[in-house]
Design brief:
The complex is a heterodimer of chains A (254) and B (759). With 254 residues, chain A is an alpha+beta fold. Chain A has helices at residues 21-30, 56-62, 82-85, 140-148, 186-196, 240-246, 248-253, and strands at 4-8, 13-17, 40-45, 75-78, 91-97, 103-106, 122-128, 133-136, 159-164, 204-208, 220-228, 231-236. Chain A starts with a strand and ends with a helix. Chain B is globular, with a radius of gyration of 25 Å. Chain B starts with 8 loop residues before the first helix and ends in an 11-residue tail after the last helix. The chains are: A alpha+beta (254), B mainly alpha (759).
Chain lengths: 254, 759
Amino acid sequence: MSKFIYLTATPEALIASMLPPEAFGEYLSTGTKKRNKGQAIFFEVDLSQIEKLIDMDSLNKRCIAKPDGSPKNSVYLSIYKVLEMVPLSALKSLYLTTDNGYTLELKRTPYDLANENRNKLYLFQELCPVAPMVASGLTPSAFLKRLTDGSTPIAVPKLFFVDLKLGDLATNPMKGLVDYLPFANVVHLRDCLESLKGDYEKHMKTVQRVFSGSLLYRTIESGFYVGAKDEIIFYPYPSLTELEDINYEFFRSI
Amino acid sequence: MVSLPGATPFEVIAIWSVLVIAFFGLAYAMFLRRQVMACDKGTVKMQEVWDGIRIGANAYLKRQLKTIIPLIFIFTIILFLSVYVVPPTEESKLRFVGYSDESLKLIIGFGRAVAFIMGSLFSLMVGQFGMRMAVQANVRVASASRRSFGEALKIAYRAGTVTGMLTDGLGLLGGTLIFIIFGVASPDTLLGFGFGGTLLALFMRVGGGIYTKAADVGADLVGKVEAGLPEDDERNAAVIADLVGDNVGDCAGMAADIFESYEVTIVSTLILGVVLFTQTHELSWIIFPLLVRGIGVLSSIIGTYLVKGEKNAKSNNALKAINKGFYSSALISITAFGVLAYFYLGEWRSFLSVVVGILLAVVLDEITKHFTDGNYHPVKDIAKNSKTGSATLLLKGMSYGFEVAVWQTLVIAVTIFASIMIYNGQPIVYVLYGVAMTGIGMLTLTGNNVAMDAFGPIADNANGIGELSHLDKDARKIMDSLDATGNTTKAITKGVAIGSAVIAAVALFGSFITDVSKVQIQMGFEKTAQLIETGIRISVPMVFIGLLIGGTIPWLFSSLTINAVTRAAAEIVEEVRRQFRIPGVIERTVKPDYQRAVDICTISAQRELVPLALIAVLSPILIGSLLGVEALGGFLAGVILSGQLLAVFMAGAGGAWDNAKKTIEDGLYGGKGSEAHHAAVVGDTVGDPLKDTAGPALNPMIKVINLVSLLAAPVIIAYQKPGQSSVGMFITGAICLSIIIAAITFSKRGGFKKIPFEM
């Protein structure tokens, strides 16, 4: 049986498994006796690019089929600074699993900076290594660069985050309609967004300090971003119509 | 030969025609069954899933029979012997001229017992055959969904129509047959028929309601909430029980409930019709309602056959197609009734009463829709209140639940007032007949109503089979659409079921007064002591006590029913948790033991309903024997009023909470996963056992209490002369009280105490 390496975002971990991505996602969300349940967001990692970073002997000894012949579900390789350690080039597809076990694959795509809209506000949910929800006047690439180039004290080596829907709030924070968006404290969100429209130089405002652990997939706007400084990898999220065709079970589940 | 003294040739032909129509309805049911059974059952995986449902359903039906048959036996003997306590009526002597008193008692006793068996068996057949048909249809609908929406809709609806036609055909057959054989002596035996149907309906409705909610809650609490599995996941041991439960509750239980209302309205109309015949010597009081029902069967056949989706359409509006069938039947019926009234009756009062009944069904439909449909203000308002949490959402739902109960009760009051206006200036028995005719009109389209209701679980099950056998997206979309429609039609028919139960109860209440008066006259009571003259005087303290106690019975029944669901669900939760711990189940390498969950649900449901049935049967005997027959009348009035309000409240609030949740899931106030959605889920969880178990359980309970009162009243009068006390009645009352207390204690036994599981 093949071995797969996965980088899970929340919580951050590097995990070896004999399960292919869809089965691994289902295992993470519903299949463990630990009674953990909830969604899973993880990358498949190219083992050949990280062989020097992990203890391959230990991996080969531990990641073997169970006595009854069934595949090994998970072998934890690391739980600290994983995203920092894994090169961006080693990240393959990104997988999103619902909390009842349906998995969607997102493929990495070249990111076209020319398509970025500089005339609106953004809402980003950071996922790894830190996980606040942040409103920003910066585009995704500028946001990534600001938080990873060391120019501010709150930098991280790499950042994985997702762009969330704001609807009318992106251009009209105080009066835009938001009934279809599930944000708990809309009044605070409006205030944060409105403050970014002023002359304030900060360009970012924390909306929510702590991530609940549950990302509502239907609130994803453009997709997921991971990178550092000027290097950015983009995983576009399909529209609902496309999603219905690509993965009906996932679509029904969200 | 038909015993119809003074019948015209038309009337003789009419009564035989009604019998032929009843058989025709049954033949049509068999015809539709053959059509459905000829359809394919899909892939091997689909049939594997279906097999589990079929085996589970058969296990439930078999177990149900084992519980019910001894009770049928006991009551048959009681009913046969009852004729030796209260002698046959004068009408029996008119019918069976030349027979000695002893022979007459044997004939009537035998007739009543056989009528009871017939009523029980017919009710059982409607529930059991209907459910078996639904189970046969679900996999065929799932298979047809892979091809077209039109084909899937046709199979689902025609399978539902089989149940509808069984309800129509058997209900009409029983009443007509009894009348053909017993003629003016029918009331003596009709009560047996009514009681048989009602008692079985109580078992199927209450037992079915407990089963379905226990399986649903148990499957969801552990499967979805604890383990995070999707709906209808094959790793959930209760998934098959959940799918079986859809049929048990919504198909068998509801069909038996509506059958019971259908035949009880025939029973009460014929009883009152015979009274009017003896006064006016006009058979039209009896023949017209039977003809109306016969026409209803025919128009239902036409209307249900018209329901089909567009050919080769991938998605469509199923509700439009179903409504087209319903309104076509209504139009045909009203036209035919008018023609019949014009040529046969020569006057319009009975026709108007029937039309009022049809209008009542439409108005109750609209009221239910207004308060429970997501397109209207109340549900939108409830959904809006989810923004401030579950408490405000629950309070809002309760508020609208209370309100819908008021409107529905007022509409019924207006209906009774309409009868007073139609029979203005006539003695009270005419008004009571008018109310009974309203019930006849209201349930004219029973074939369509039951088809609409039975369609729901078929579509639901098909969706479950599709989920478990991983059908493609297009088929799933079709089944989703049918399932959503089924939820709507189920909600609408629930409103009709409650309304018809109340009208049937009011009609029976009328029969109670006339029947009691007849026996009082026979026993030589003074006119001033006869119930038809005094009425039910709530100013009399004993009567008022009866009224108060009657008002509490639906509340007690609901409390015990909800407790029963909680207990049964707890057993399922423990079982599913246990099976999740079996190595391999979560990993899909080991299949769960679905049948064990089915067996637990089945045994729990049958066990829990026995104390409830005892309370329903014995409480009127208790009141009548200790407080007297007029107090029993007060008791009935209390049961009807309180039961109607509570049943509508539970159905209305439950339906509104359910649809508020769906509205939010469609995208309002943040949609799925939002705080508003969490609040709405709480509301839906609270409302589910109310609208699916406790609320519907009150329908047959009200009628069982009515019919037991009707059967017991002559005995009570015979042993309880005014101003005298009876030791025998006192002992009877004491025994009933002891059994009721034991039943309540048994039903209230606490918590999660495990009952030994037995096969």
